Amino acid sequence: MNDEQTFSKWRLWDISAREKPLNDDKYRSGLRFARRIWLPRTVGHFCCFIMFAGVLVDQALPGWWWLALVMYAFVWPHLALQIAERSSDPMTAERRNLIIDTLMAGIGIAIMGGNALPCLLLSMMINMNNIGAFGVRFFAAGLMLQMMTALMAMQFIDAPLNLTTTPLQFFLSLPTLIIYPALFGFVCYRTAVNLAEHKRRHQLISTRDGMTGVYNRRHWEQLLIIEYENALRYRRASTLLLIDIDHFKQINDTYGHDVGDKAIIAVTQYLQLTLRVSDVIGRFGGDEFAVIMSGTSPESAVAAMDRIHERLQNLRIENAASLNVQISVGIAPFNTHMKDYQEWLKAADMALYQAKKAGRNRTEVYTVR
Ligand SMILES: Nc1nc2c(ncn2[C@@H]2O[C@H](COP(=O)(O)OP(=O)(O)OP(=O)(O)O)[C@@H](O)[C@H]2O)c(=O)[nH]1
């Protein structure tokens, strides 16, 4: 171990030296947590300072207690954030910061000589933080730690035991009583809103195809299973389409992959603009799409595809003026004899194969032989 490593190991503020490296997600969520807790801690410590001061003016304590109080109230919240931000594991660092807060609350209770209202409020604040941050076990351990620290500190600090709260001390406790719980509630609310947004985005990412924005294959197949069950139960018409861009490999090879991507996006847009909002479009992979047309006859599906074939003739893609994008389509109407959704899908695939075999740029409907 070189000098630099030895030195950093013993630096009290360099807690990162003893922490395991984390993956990016865990690190960032720890960092967010430390930043989220900074505002309530700063405001809470300020409120506590006012409350403390109201009690300390009546205590004949040495002046350096005041200095310690000022440092703890106004410097510690920012120092705690710095410690967490510089740590390789901000969540663990913040856990330690909360333990320090808990210890300091125990000492604070001893300094205030058990003064009823300020001591209860101080304990409430710490308990709210502990349970909100790390759950019930951390809260219970924190409560024990607070009580033990308070009892031990009372032995060392010669503060007179005085449980009575004067009217002045009551008024100076009001900011802690009113502001802190409201701020804590606000932080919880903001976290809940962020979480809901996070969930919504996660849901979107897990069900959509990243390039086109239509459903990805996994999710689309789930919707197909539901459609199959409904069509079977209610004996209603439903049509399945598989669509494949013709000679797509050749498009990629001739014009490049970016033109290929633009062709995929353009076909998606044509499908979205031409088909009904109720039609369920999915990207099946590569240059292949699939559509569920619920309550639609194969004749209507063919008519819709004819419109797409026609409109695609006018499609011009940037940097590929001579490119004429064409598609082949396989259509399979739902049939109660199909034993599962895969058989339905297979029928559409066979129709698509027929369209390719018959010369491409056309629509074929599956017929039971
Ligand atoms: N640009 C681009 N190419 C892709 C993407 N996904 C798959 N491909 C390519 O698409 C091509 C698919 O070609 P195929 O479906 O096998 O055949 P094809 O050339 O379309 O021929 P036919 O279907 O018989 O008309 C392959 O070369 C894949 O590498 C994509 O997201 N973007």
Description:
The protein has 369 residues and is α+β, with helices and mostly antiparallel strands. The protein has two domains: 12-205, no CATH class; 217-365, Reverse transcriptase/Diguanylate cyclase domain (Alpha-Beta Plaits). 66% of the residues lie in helices and 8% in strands. It has twelve helices and five strands. The chain has helices spanning 3-10, 24-56, 63-74, 76-86, 90-111, 116-156, 167-207, 217-234, 248-255, 257-274, 298-312, 341-357; strands spanning 238-245, 280-285, 288-294, 327-333, 363-365. A five-stranded mixed β-sheet has the order 2-3-1-4-5, with helices on both faces. The longest helix has 41 residues, at 116-156. The model is unreliable at 1-19 (pLDDT under 50). Bound molecules: guanosine-5'-triphosphate. Residues 244-250, 252, 257, 260-261, 264, 286-287, 356, 360 line the site of guanosine-5'-triphosphate.
